[in-house]
């Protein structure tokens, strides 16, 4: 076969290849089947000695050769019953792997695409197509048997409820005795959905019924939250430590992103589909996956610096990202770290299939991963994958490079069709198929053969290092007829492309390889996710931010580099006034608005109503499916126009939702959120049409001191420019809708959702307002007083009241601005006795009264009452889980707790109910009712700052919310002008807390020292240490410095009675690994005082400088950091006679002369040489002399 291929390549050397499939196809009409009778358009024959007939004969011979290859190497192992392909490389028998089966089906389908160009194909196109359909439907049916798991998983994302990725190849049942380990593979579902879209686009019929349509919709639901679902990855190993732990994988998220793009608005019945066979995707979920994926790249996960699975993600078959810089960085990193002489490693320290791995041990011990370093197996199939990537990029040099490297690695074997008919294809009776022929087979892997290497080293007379020459041996499965179908499928596709029989457009009918704006447009009836063709560019502009505390007299300004994306996107703003009175008031300022009645018959609904509408999507009683999970729609989803049951509906964003968290009651924060929403839409809008942003204006918005800020924002909107990067246009709704992005919810009908359900929803909220009257100015609108009084719920006058007295007080006393606090405390005492469902009077419970108090507190802007009541009602922000994920994917760790008490570490994405349990546990809510909601405020604001100004978090690996809240309290005390003034966080508005957080994060000791501005003059050294310690900030390369110290400390490092041993730490981890940094942070978290933590960091830095400049020094005994700090403080006390030694030491500047560093250096040197004296039993060393010898400056 090899000689035959070579001769054919030589014969076709003069043929120029034209890619006829690259033209963009309008619409979804791809019914015309291209023919090899148009061969001159495909094969340009320049050699006059060869005519058209000869070239057609060559093509037919090649196709016949590949047909026989597919029959022998792929279809011979397809089950007659399920259509699945047998994976016979594992220890289990009769196992079919989903990912491998999808690639096998793709290889068969690829050859079918070639035969579709031939008029007289002898039925082979149909045969190959149906074989691919049989496999895809086999996977679908296996999954449909687990519909109960899918229903639970789409809401919980728990590994135990995940769809299985392995099935019995005979009957499609779950594997007996197999556990849930490795089953959660987001990538498996994503690749399946992506391939499903490709095959249906090529006119294959795979989905047969509405039940299957609903099931595919449920699969989409299950991957929408891939951005916060840790899984086992495509290799089923989880983290690289192989300890049965899941983690976020960039490859899984990227494949989910690509699958969502392919499925959005896709008709599963193809060209003949109906409106109810269309798949819908949450555009906000897609955007979160996109942001998370782009943030993770080029890293694969927390434990894997890179992974060969990323080659499948940024290239064929996924093409999940089209940012050339991001793709190049990812691919280059894979090549630099993973490429070997015999293929690519899957990831560093991958021990699977090595001769060092124990065959009967599923998981590794914590200390054994080091032995796999530089002993990983190398997989040749990635060379074929890189060749395919080169073909898509039209990079012939890359194709030649990897094919040249791959050819010597292939194995020539003699194939015979298996005798067992149960796995054979139905058309394997041809006598030629049973005749032995030599074939090129993809080797499963090459492993480092230590036995052969040891024998070779012993026989060699020269003394050489084994690391200089590693001996590889190939896996022997292929020699016994056990083929690596995954790799063989990729190799066949690579050959089809390289021989120019298969075009890249045949392999990718939906044009994933093209940028989204250049892909064929789908039916305009449904929205399509695509990169906008607008001009976008980024500039690094120093942006001045103002850090304001509650005291407006004290302000600081810092310059932070902000990446601003400029776009010509115009956002349509529709302003809706809740009453005619408010409309008239705003009209006097030239701001035109509409009332809900004026926009009829168009409807504006709360976001919760849209969630109810989508609850019917994918619902199926036979399969036990409910509809879309009750997830709130983000700002992108609310910017679309919806056609629901012959009605046109819009939704206003969650920003204006009055039933949401109390933060929406802060007018200043609301305006800031509006600006953030508009900036977010400008950056992230990827849909066809212009977004419509609905602003809901209520009379209470003009009753506070921030009314001038609201009018200023509305004036900017009227003028059409919010900022240099945000363009808006204030429009009437009837005008804006003509150019909007319209989504038709055809899955709804009058039987499911009657029209009466939609008519009064938008107006009901405003019927209590007076639409009569003539108001000419803002003075006619009542003003809202602002109160500042904290709540001491542990000591109040109602503690001695009986339950009947408490009920009488609540029922007989009107709620006013004066009695609001007393009503709250009285209700709290009843809450302690019976909880939220305790009766106050008939049909009126504690819960009802607290809800009423919350509304009144929002009107009076009483933040202490608002926070207290919200916490009692166990309120939680909807976007809390995405906020946590946003921090985690940027390499941060989050802890929740109260300063000075136990903290809960969040190192992987969590579901909202899990976060809810942490916040309202005894550890937080039980210790402080206010902290349960203050921590939510803090988390949301930190996530916003992380997106906007990530530079604020430089040097902060672990975000300890309780400690940051303590830093804000310290800053609040520092900014007080009156020492007798009592100001607590509970009474501050959410916007004030946000500004304080901004001030704390943007002012660290390093910036203050460098800028030398007002902030550094105001802050003492003690306060700087408190701030840095409280926000857990460390210097640049701090963790690498600790690694260097540990390398020269055989006894390990001791801090707060916690020992970090040198071994196996150095063996199991690397200095650049995130897990090592987290281990150091875990030790630092034992320190209870922020200022002392800062001293610990300074001590490590001083030790690093000393060891770096004196490479001959090392610690003989255990490095006890607490002991060194105590000795430094004692030395300071001896020389200064300080009465408060620690407090005065905290106030020392960080300097060698006259500062804390000088004392630390002297103590470190004394510690080093005292240990040397004890070790060598020499007593004639002069410590002062040694100090002079050491280079520290």
Automatic annotation (TrEMBL):
Membrane association type: Lipid-anchor
One Pfam entry name: KPBB_C
Metabolic or biological pathway, per its Swiss-Prot or TrEMBL entry: Glycan biosynthesis; glycogen metabolism
Phosphorylase b kinase regulatory subunit alpha/beta C-terminal domain: residues covered: 1006-1142
Source organism, top-level taxon: Eukaryota
GO annotations of cellular component type: phosphorylase kinase complex; plasma membrane
Keywords, sorted A to Z: Calmodulin-binding, Carbohydrate metabolism, Cell membrane, Glycogen metabolism, Lipoprotein, Membrane, Prenylation
Residue ranges, compositional bias (Polar residues): 425-434
Residue ranges of domain GH15-like in the record: 62-962
Keyword check for Ligase: no
Subcellular location: Cell membrane
GO molecular function, a single term: calmodulin binding
Gene Ontology process terms (BP): glycogen metabolic process
Keyword Membrane found: yes
Region annotation Disordered: where it falls in the sequence: 417-438
Primary location recorded for the protein, binned into one broad class: membrane
Family of the protein in this entry: Belongs to the phosphorylase b kinase regulatory chain family.
Primary role: Phosphorylase b kinase catalyzes the phosphorylation of serine in certain substrates, including troponin I.
Name by which UniProt lists this protein: Phosphorylase b kinase regulatory subunit
Protein source organism: Adineta steineri
């Amino acid at each position: 076969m090899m000689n035959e291929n070579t001769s054919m390549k030589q014969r076709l050397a003069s043929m120029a290849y034209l890619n006829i499939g690259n033209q963009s196809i309008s619409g979804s009409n791809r019914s015309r089947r291209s023919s090899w009778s148009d061969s001159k358009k495909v094969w340009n024959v320049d050699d006059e000695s060869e005519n058209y007939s000869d070239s057609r004969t060559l093509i037919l011979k090649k196709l016949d050769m590949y047909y026989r290859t597919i029959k022998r190497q792929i279809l011979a192992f397809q089950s007659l019953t399920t259509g699945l392909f047998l994976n016979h490389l594992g220890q289990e028998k009769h196992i079919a792997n989903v990912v491998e089966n999808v690639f096998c089906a793709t290889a068969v389908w690829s050859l079918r695409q070639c035969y579709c160009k031939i008029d007289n194909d002898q039925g082979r196109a149909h045969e190959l197509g149906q074989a691919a359909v049989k496999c895809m439907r086999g996977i679908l049916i296996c999954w449909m048997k687990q519909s109960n798991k899918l229903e639970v998983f789409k809401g919980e994302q728990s590994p135990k409820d995940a769809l299985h990725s392995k099935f019995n190849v005979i009957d499609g049942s779950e594997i007996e005795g197999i556990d849930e380990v490795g089953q959660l593979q987001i990538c498996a579902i994503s690749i399946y959905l992506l391939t499903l879209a490709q095959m249906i686009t090529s006119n294959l019929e795979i989905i047969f019924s509405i039940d299957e349509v609903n099931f595919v919709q449920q699969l989409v639901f299950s991957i929408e939250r891939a951005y916060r679902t840790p899984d086992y990855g495509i290799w089923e190993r989880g983290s690289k430590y192989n300890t049965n732990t899941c983690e976020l994988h960039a490859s899984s998220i990227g494949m989910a992103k690509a699958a969502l793009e392919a499925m959005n608005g896709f008709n599963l019945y193809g060209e003949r589909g109906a409106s109810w066979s269309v798949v819908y995707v949450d555009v906000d979920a897609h955007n979160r996956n996109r942001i998370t994926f782009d943030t993770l790249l080029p890293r694969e996960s927390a434990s894997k610096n890179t992974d060969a699975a990323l080659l499948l993600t940024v290239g064929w078959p996924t093409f999940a990202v089209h940012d050339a810089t991001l793709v190049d960085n990812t691919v280059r990193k894979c090549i630099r770290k993973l490429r070997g002489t015999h293929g690519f490693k899957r990831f560093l320290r991958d021990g699977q299939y090595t001769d060092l791995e124990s065959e009967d041990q599923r998981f590794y011990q914590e200390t054994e991963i080091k032995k796999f370093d530089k002993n990983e197996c190398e997989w040749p199939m990635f060379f074929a994958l890189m060749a395919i990537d080169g073909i898509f990029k039209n990079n012939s040099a890359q194709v030649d490079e990897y094919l040249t490297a791959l050819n010597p690695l292939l194995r020539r074997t003699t194939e015979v069709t298996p005798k067992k008919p149960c796995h054979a294809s139905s058309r394997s009776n041809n006598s030629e198929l049973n005749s032995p022929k030599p074939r090129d087979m993809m080797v499963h892997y090459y492993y480092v053969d230590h036995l052969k290497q040891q024998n070779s080293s012993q026989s060699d007379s020269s003394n050489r290092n084994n690391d200089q020459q590693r001996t590889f041996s190939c896996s022997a499965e292929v020699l016994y007829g056990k083929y690596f179908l995954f790799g063989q499928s990729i190799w066949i596709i690579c050959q089809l492309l390289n021989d120019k029989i298969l075009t890249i457009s045949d392999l990718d009918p939906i044009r994933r390889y093209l940028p989204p704006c250049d892909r064929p447009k789908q039916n305009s009836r449904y929205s399509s996710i695509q990169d906008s063709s607008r001009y976008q560019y980024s500039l690094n502009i120093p942006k001045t931010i103002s850090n304001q505390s509650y005291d407006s007299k004290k302000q600081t300004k810092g310059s932070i580099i902000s990446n601003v994306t400029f776009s010509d996107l115009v956002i349509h703003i529709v302003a809706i006034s809740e009453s005619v009175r408010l409309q008239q008031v705003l009209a006097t300022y030239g701001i035109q608005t509409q009332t809900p009645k004026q926009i009829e018959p168009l409807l504006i609904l709360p976001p919760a109503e849209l969630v109810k509408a989508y609850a019917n999507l994918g619902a199926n009683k036979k399969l036990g499916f409910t509809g879309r999970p009750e997830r709130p729609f983000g700002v992108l989803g609310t910017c679309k126009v919806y056609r629901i049951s012959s009605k046109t509906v819009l939704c206003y964003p969650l920003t204006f939702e009055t039933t949401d968290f109390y933060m929406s009651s802060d007018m200043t924060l609301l305006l800031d959120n509006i600006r953030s929403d508009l900036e977010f839409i400008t950056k992230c809008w990827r849909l066809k049409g212009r977004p419509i942003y609905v602003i809901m204006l209520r009379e209470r918005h003009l009753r506070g001191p921030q009314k001038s800020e609201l009018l200023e924002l509305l004036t900017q909107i009227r003028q059409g420019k919010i900022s240099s990067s945000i363009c808006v246009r204030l429009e009437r709704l009837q005008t804006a809708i003509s150019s909007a992005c319209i989504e038709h919810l055809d899955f709804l009908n009058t039987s499911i959702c009657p029209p009466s359900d939609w008519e009064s929803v938008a107006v009901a909220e405003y019927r209590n307002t007076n639409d009569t009257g003539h108001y000419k100015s803002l003075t006619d609108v009542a003003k809202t007083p602002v109160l500042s009084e904290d709540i001491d719920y542990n000591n109040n006058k109602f503690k001695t009241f009986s339950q009947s007295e408490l009920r009488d007080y609540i029922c007989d006393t009107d709620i006013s601005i004066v009695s609001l606090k007393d009503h709250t405390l009285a209700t709290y005492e009843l809450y302690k006795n019976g909880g939220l469902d305790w009766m106050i009077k008939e049909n009126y419970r504690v819960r009802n009264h607290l809800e009423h108090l919350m509304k009144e507190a929002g009107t009076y802007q009483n933040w202490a009452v608002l926070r207290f009541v919200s916490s009692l009602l166990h309120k939680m922000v909807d976007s809390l889980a995405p906020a946590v994920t946003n921090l985690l994917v940027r390499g941060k760790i989050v802890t929740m707790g109260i300063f000075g008490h136990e903290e809960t570490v969040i190192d992987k994405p969590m579901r909202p109910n899990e976060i809810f349990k942490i916040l309202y546990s005894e550890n937080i809510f039980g210790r402080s009712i206010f902290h349960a909601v203050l921590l939510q405020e803090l988390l949301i604001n930190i996530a916003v700052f992380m997106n906007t100004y990530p530079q604020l978090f430089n040097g902060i690996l672990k975000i300890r919310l309780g400690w940051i809240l303590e830093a804000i309290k310290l800053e609040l005390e520092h900014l007080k002008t009156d020492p007798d003034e009592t100001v607590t966080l509970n009474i501050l508005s959410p916007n004030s807390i946000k500004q304080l957080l901004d001030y704390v994060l943007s002012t660290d000791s390093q910036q203050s020292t460098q800028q030398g501005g007002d902030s550094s003059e105001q802050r003492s050294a003690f306060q700087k240490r408190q701030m840095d310690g409280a926000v857990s900030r460390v210097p640049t390369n701090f963790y690498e410095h600790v690694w260097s110290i540990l390398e020269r400390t055989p006894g390990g490092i001791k801090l707060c009675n916690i020992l970090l041993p040198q071994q196996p730490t150095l063996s199991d981890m690397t200095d650049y690994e995130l897990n090592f940094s987290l281990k150091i942070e875990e030790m630092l978290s034992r320190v209870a005082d922020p200022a002392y933590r800062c001293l610990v960091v300074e001590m490590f830095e001083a030790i690093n400088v000393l060891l770096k400049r004196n490479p001959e020094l090392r610690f003989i005994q255990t490095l006890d950091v607490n002991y060194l700090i105590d000795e430094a403080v004692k030395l300071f006390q001896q020389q200064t006679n300080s009465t408060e030694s620690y407090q005065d030491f905290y106030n020392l500047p960080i300097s060698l002369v006259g500062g804390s560093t000088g004392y630390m250096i002297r103590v470190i040197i004394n510690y080093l040489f005292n240990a040397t004296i004890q070790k060598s039993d020499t007593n004639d060393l002069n410590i002062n002399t040694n100090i002079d010898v050491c280079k520290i400056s």
